Amino acid sequence: MIRVVLAEDEHLIREALVALLELTEDIKVVGQAKSGDEALAMIRKLTPDVAVLDLQMPGASGIEVAAAVASELPGCACLIVTSHGLPGHLKQALAQGVRGFVPKTTSGARLAEVIRVVRDGGRYVDPALAADAIAAGDSPLTPREADVLLAADGGAPVEEIAARVNLSPGTVRNYLSSAIGKLHAATRHEAVRIARDRGWI
């Protein structure tokens, strides 16, 4: 029996996924979580074979949970299920040890197959998401440029961004200018949008 912890913040989707998985003979959902922090605590307590994680949840994201699980419980395989399959998210997930990455449009039968694959040590990435990631290429941003752009989301003034990321306003301006150039954007707002659309921030 494959023991699964499932984390999804939307109640209806979580219940539907559990109901679909419970139709299989070899998969048992031993725990359900509605946030990343709750999921991590549950995974530590129950030590399941597979953790099925929503990408974006309250508290820790699915990728952050997967990174912690890979470090602490390498026997538990992590699978991301998302409605936001951006290329950057896929690359971040794989870099953190995630073994499966599928959209929420995946059928129950396919999800069960992917759970079996990752439990057995294999990997599965939805082909369309993989193709998008290859087409988008790697992020041209340095980690610090990405941090500054993320802090700039919402149109905060430079001084406020500087306080958030513990840098001087002049350094923030330099990072913003560099990021705008690398993304071929006209403004920092456009740079934020481009980076967010590609999952780079």
Tell me what the structure shows.
The chain is α/β, with parallel strands linked by helices. The protein has 2 domains: 2-136, Rossmann fold (3-Layer(aba) Sandwich), CATH 3.40.50.2300; 143-197, Winged helix-like DNA-binding domain superfamily/Winged helix DNA-binding domain (Arc Repressor Mutant, subunit A, Orthogonal Bundle). Helices cover 53% and strands 15% of the residues. It has helices spanning 11-22, 36-46, 62-72, 87-95, 108-119, 127-136, 143-152, 158-165, 169-182, 188-197; strands spanning 2-7, 27-33, 50-54, 77-82, 100-103, 124-125. A 6-stranded parallel β-sheet has the order 2-1-3-4-5-6, sandwiched between helices. Helix 2 (36-46) packs parallel to helix 3 (62-72), helix 4 (87-95) packs across helix 6 and helix 7 (143-152) packs across helix 8 (158-165). It is elongated, with a radius of gyration of 19 Å.
The CATH topology name of the largest domain reads: Rossmann fold
Order of helices and strands: EHEHEHEHEHEHHHHH
- How far apart, in Å, are the first and last alpha carbons? 38 Å
Query: Into which percent range does the helicity of residues fall?
Result: 40-55%
Number of helices: 10
Sheet-strand content, in percent, reads 5-15%
> CATH class of the largest domain, please?
Alpha Beta
Rg, rounded, reads 19 Å
